[in-house]
């Protein structure tokens, strides 16, 4: 189960805890610190005593340093957003405690002065006016987190008793126990207050869906109206259908995607989200690999040509989605939501450049842990499309993506399988090793379809996407002889892969056939797949494959 006692995130139970957490939030020690701090601030901010305010000075020094000189190699764009938010929070403390926060105020003035000297230069941050609420014409890099930070600031500034943030995780890595969400919503219900849309969507998408405790039906009764219908639908069995009223289509649509991305609920037919190509909501884009010829002219004015293989997704074009500079090196997708309340998953295609995303990627994936595919598509598109790429940027994004897949606990759909299989063939060795680890772990848990991975691998081999040697080495080093169960699954993977290969032998096929023969002998099984038997007959006629093909028991 996802919700257990040993993975409960330690609660912040005092103002001392709050300040200690704030002092390490920019270190990125834990994936959940960002969200935990927001929830803790809302709960404990008002209970701080005047004498504690000076303890915020070193925290703010870190925030200024990060903004002005870029922070450490572990920091991402999300940490810059957090640092900006902390500046806003410091202004709030200065207003509330003019005397005790004098030190904070002096620090701010000193930093603004330092920053003004940079005016007109690259490092200028305009600290004088910098705020998380800044209205900008530029595309915001991570709009969801920015919205959560703004929401937190609103709650901290409000005169009423602050209501809790809904999206704060309760269990590692970043899940919310259903009981806790019900408890939080009850407070909104009692205060007759409207939740923030993005906070609510994030909370719905972080709920642990498999924990159906006996008390849930009883707890759900304490909610009324739309809240009760919504959570009964999300947490109920697969056949539980949504019940009107649908006053907040974004919540319902998000709940539907979390519960079952492939199901189109007739009850939602009037929502404006249905006008968009559905792939943008589920991540289930059609993918393919193809070969093309590339060339360059060398210093002797001689043209050098070579064949490349590429993995691509077919992006459907419609009124709200366009491919700009199609098939060029700077191709990008322009997408916007039809609804004034965009869905969380609709934010992913709007991240224009994934270049500097690797430090933020795990935290982005945990915005929608039950349906990460819409994010993974853009990771593959930006860094895992070419089997020869092994630059720092691409390897970093590939590792971050496959590591996120390793931590997530969702039911896999096509793009998760595509990422897993493709990473077995990428140039980066660490990512290949991760992919093998994931396969070993999921086979042990009985929640992976090895045949599906084999089919994707054979499809890649048709166009030469990734040398087969990378896979055979990986099998020999990490995947074979883990356990009898793993050997049976590995046989399934190889059978599905062989069955999809072309008759013309691909490079390094001999090694794969030798591994297959070894597995048949270990598993005491026979080659029975008709496609495979047909291909083996064809390969017997190839000199260097003759022996390997003949060794396979029938």
Automatic annotation (TrEMBL):
<dbReference type="Pfam" id="PF25148">
    <property type="entry name" value="DUF7824"/>
</dbReference>
<dbReference type="Pfam" id="PF25149">
    <property type="entry name" value="DUF7825"/>
</dbReference>
<dbReference type="InterPro" id="IPR056726">
    <property type="entry name" value="DUF7824"/>
</dbReference>
<feature type="domain" description="DUF7825">
    <location>
        <begin position="287"/>
        <end position="554"/>
    </location>
</feature>
<protein>
    <submittedName>
        <fullName>D-tyrosyl-tRNA(Tyr) deacylase</fullName>
    </submittedName>
</protein>
<dbReference type="InterPro" id="IPR056727">
    <property type="entry name" value="DUF7825"/>
</dbReference>
<feature type="domain" description="DUF7824">
    <location>
        <begin position="4"/>
        <end position="277"/>
    </location>
</feature>
